[in-house]
Design goal:
27% of the residues lie in helices and 35% in strands. It is an alpha/beta fold. α8 links the parallel β15 and β16. The longest helix has 24 residues. The protein is flat. The relative contact order is 0.13.
């Protein structure tokens, strides 16, 4: 309580006493001793009221002890069981969790991680990938404001995500790696990396790059072979020794037929090599007979042009050529899609040619678009011309049904600059993105698609789409999400296939550790998306003829099924409606490869560096007792006494109000009883 408040309370007490004296001694004719009782009651009442007006605040402190947190994170990936460290990992977790001294000293929280992080329930070591960097980052963020050393049980062999050596520098907590794996160095050959394009063109050569590694001290000879079925299509002799431990081998193979073609790279194993799994690696390419050619027409330089070209050409099946309007006139029939960027008066001829040739288009408007020209060149849509611009953010239409679209966090993308006014589309259309202003979605199209007269069209009513690509990279450290969105739009526009009631989205082949997720959309007879349909997938393994049926679940506006973990092989599938006779079919191949079986030893060097960078210490799996002693004796991890400060204003104290009421009532009753009222 402040000194000024105490002064006010003292003044209030004197004032209350003086007023009571004035009323019962100076101005009162009451002669009995009753006047002193009434004087006391009146003083209490006035003083209580004045104190309520002053409303002093009282502080109280609650003290409690806060123990530090001990975070235990266990690598639950297949490499732990492959290195035969699964039982040892369970023993260490049990020793940490059940140690009474540790439990008295710490609040112990346990987690497991593979590709993602989860609370530890049970350890089965069946995760197909491990992302130690993500585990460290997320746990570091959760316990950023606490004293919480992190014990990580891992072999240090990360197969997914960014390098944890760099992530560790941004973590405030000390990390104590418990190394799961053999420290003995064996002679071992391995295929460290394989680089190849996913798509190739018929009769063309495609490059293959193989990085072969050797760990050992002796000089050895081996041979690299690339197999296509039972035939060797490339071979090269290799020599390694203690000083030469790696070699890059490059070659080019020819694509002779259309479809998915699989190959196997093999390093001939050493005589006593312990791990031969990492000597072979399968890869696949999809051979296509032609490339989709897209024309991007512009009259004004803008960053959007480069962003669009990079996004579209991220898919190797597509090629983008950039033209001025007059340059395209004699070449327009060479392209399956024409993108018109901010058409103006110079686009007159090209707009007429597009209409006559019935070519699919993607119109992108903006600040310099001449809407008079666009409105007059076709009968599909009309933009209200105001000669004013506005910034609009995108809002995804979750019921969009022309093709499958994933929400890539559109609502948080930067706004696009667009003509202020309504875009009226007079033909049947589907709005993919609505305009949004100040978080309020308006029923006006920012991006819409439609079909008319046997052609497909899209219109994006705004410029600065390059900012979306940049924001997507900021959000995910990758351009992939945005590029995939643009490529789905381009795939729809560049194809003249008729619309189906079931659309499916999948890849032609998957690597062994990829997530195998197939998505589908179902439409009723009016081509309206149906979110209450019952769909299932019939999956047939062409290698062993086994068949199984799995239901599809509605997820974020799409029906999806996760087939991750199925055996390598060639599969045919059919997605069907369980009531109506509507179905769509496809096929894919899963290449045999288990990234978690590529390691022979724990990565001791990186785990020790992780401990050193975070001011922790690394231990081997048989040193659990030393780890426990270190944690118990480290003075950084002591129990901290904390206090909670509670400030309570007197006006919230109900007893004072009761005292005022009681004193006033007693005074009134005495005066009434003695006939003084």
């Amino acid at each position: 309580m402040q000194n000024i408040t105490i002064l006010f309370i003292a003044i209030a007490a004197v004032t209350a006493l003086l007023l009571a004296l004035f009323q019962y001694l100076y101005k009162s004719n009451l002669k009995s001793n009753l006047k002193y009782l009434l004087l006391a009651l009146r003083t209490i009442s006035i003083f209580g009221i004045l104190v309520l007006l002053i409303n002093p605040k009282f502080e109280s402190f609650t003290y409690f002890d806060e123990k530090p947190t001990l975070v235990v994170a266990v690598d639950n990936s297949e490499s732990i069981s492959y290195l035969k460290q699964d039982e040892k990992a369970r023993e260490v977790v049990k020793a940490l969790s059940n140690n009474s001294e540790l439990n008295n000293r710490f609040d112990i929280h346990t987690y497991s991680f593979g590709k993602s992080v989860s609370t530890l329930d049970s350890l089965n070591f069946n995760e197909r990938q491990s992302n130690l960097a993500l585990a460290l980052k997320q746990l570091g963020e959760v316990y950023a404001n606490q004293t919480a050393p992190i014990v990580v049980l891992s072999d240090g062999n990360q197969t997914y995500g960014s390098d944890y050596s760099y992530v560790s520098k941004g973590i405030k907590q000390s990390v104590y790696p418990v190394i799961l794996g053999d420290s003995t160095v064996y002679s071992d050959l391995s295929i460290k990396q394989l680089n190849v394009n996913r798509y190739v063109y018929l009769k063309n050569k495609f490059p293959v790059e193989v990085i072969a590694n050797y760990s050992g001290k002796d000089a050895i000879n081996t041979e690299l072979k690339i197999w296509s079925g039972n035939a060797v299509v490339f071979r090269k002799s290799l020599q390694f020794n203690a000083s030469k431990t790696s070699e890059i081998i490059s070659t080019a193979l020819i694509a002779n037929s259309v479809g998915v073609k699989t190959y196997r790279v093999e390093l001939v194993a050493l005589e006593n090599e312990k791990n031969k799994v990492n000597n072979t690696k399968n890869f696949g390419v999809e051979v296509i007979d032609q490339k989709t050619n897209i024309a991007l027409v512009y009259d004004r330089m803008h960053p959007d042009l480069g962003a669009l070209k990079k996004s579209i050409e991220s898919n190797e099946q597509r090629s983008v050529s950039i033209f001025k309007p007059k340059e395209l006139l004699n070449k327009i029939n060479d392209f399956q899609l024409v993108i018109l960027y901010q058409p103006n008066n110079r686009f007159n001829s090209i707009l007429k040619e597009i209409k006559e040739q019935k070519i699919n288009t993607f119109i992108i408007s903006g600040e310099t678009t001449n809407w008079n020209i666009l409105n007059e060149s076709q009968d599909y849509y009309k933009q209200k011309i105001t000669n004013q611009t506005e910034n609009y953010q995108p809002s995804l239409n979750k019921n969009y049904g022309t093709f499958i679209v994933e929400n890539i966090d559109f609502n948080n993308f930067p706004p696009l600059k667009s003509e202020f006014g309504t875009l009226q589309i007079s033909v049947p259309h589907d709005i993919l993105l609505y305009k949004s202003v100040n978080g309020i979605t308006i029923e006006d199209a920012l991006l819409a698609t439609f079909e008319a007269n046997g052609t497909k069209h899209a219109i994006l009513n705004g410029e600065d789409i390059w900012k979306w690509r940049a924001q997507s990279f900021i959000n995910t450290n990758s351009f992939n999400n945005f590029d995939e969105f643009i490529n789905k739009l381009v795939q729809y526009l560049s194809s003249n296939k008729k619309r189906k009631r079931i659309n499916i989205d999948y890849k032609s082949f998957y690597n062994g550790n990829d997530d195998v997720i197939i998505s589908a959309q179902y439409f009723n007879k009016n081509f309206e998306f149906d979110n209450s349909a019952s769909l299932s997938i019939i999956l047939k393994n062409k290698d062993d003829e086994s068949v199984r049926e799995v239901p599809l679940l509605l997820n974020n506006g799409n029906y999806t099924v996760d087939l991750s973990g199925i055996n390598a092989g060639l599969y045919d599938f059919t997605i069907k409606h369980n009531v109506e006779s509507v179905a769509a079919s496809g096929s894919f191949q899963i290449l045999e490869y288990n990234v978690e079986q590529q390691f022979l030893n724990a990565d001791i060097t990186k785990l020790e560096a992780l401990a050193s960078n975070s001011k922790g210490e690394a231990y081997f799996v048989n040193q659990a007792s030393a780890l426990i002693d270190n944690l118990l004796n480290d003075k950084r991890y002591t129990t901290i006494q904390k206090s909670t400060k509670n400030i309570v204003p007197l006006i919230d104290w109900k007893y004072l109000l009761g005292l005022i009421v009681l004193s006033l009532f007693i005074e009134w009753f005495i005066r009434k009883y003695n006939g003084l009222i």
